[in-house]
Write a structure and sequence with these properties.
Elements: H1 9-26, H2 31-38, H3 42-50, H4 56-65, H5 69-73, H6 83-88, E1 118-119, E2 131-132
Antiparallel strand pairs: 1-2
Length: 136
């Protein structure tokens, strides 16, 4: 990968425009198609590719249409504190294990803890629910 050093603002814009034009062409888009997808005018796409100055909002719209906005935003790292930094600053309390008491049910339809087989209750009633059968 070649390293380019933009000496001036104008050369940086020209380089950005050339790369955006190459990206558009690789995706087989016309300038009009990219403009329509982006929600900007065709002239705005032409100005970006020519290296002219454009509004940042229009550049963001074009970058979003190219699925390149996240890459663009990653240039500047997120400086919000990490969860570990918040913990060290005391803004997050240490987690405590939550537990609830387990209730043992005494009904005949309860699930046995160590049962090995699940079968239908041997009953002529069709409305009976399925129960664990430990005897089989």
């Amino acid at each position: 990968m070649a390293i380019y050093k933009a000496q001036t603002d104008e050369s940086a814009l020209a380089l950005l425009g050339k790369r955006m034009a190459a990206f558009r062409i690789r995706n087989n888009w016309t300038q009009a198609q990219l403009a329509q997808i982006s929600g900007v005018s065709k002239g705005t796409v032409e100005r970006i590719e020519r290296g002219d100055s454009v509004q940042v909002l229009n550049l963001v719209k074009v970058l979003r249409a190219c699925n390149m906005l996240e890459t663009f935003l990653s240039i500047f790292p997120d400086d919000s504190p990490s969860p570990m930094q918040l913990l060290q600053m005391g803004q997050i309390k240490n987690r405590q294990r939550a537990s609830t008491p387990h209730k043992k049910s005494t009904s005949e339809n309860s699930v046995a803890d160590n049962s090995a087989q699940y079968s239908a209750a041997e009953s002529p009633a069709k409305n009976k629910p399925w129960v664990w059968d430990e005897d089989k």
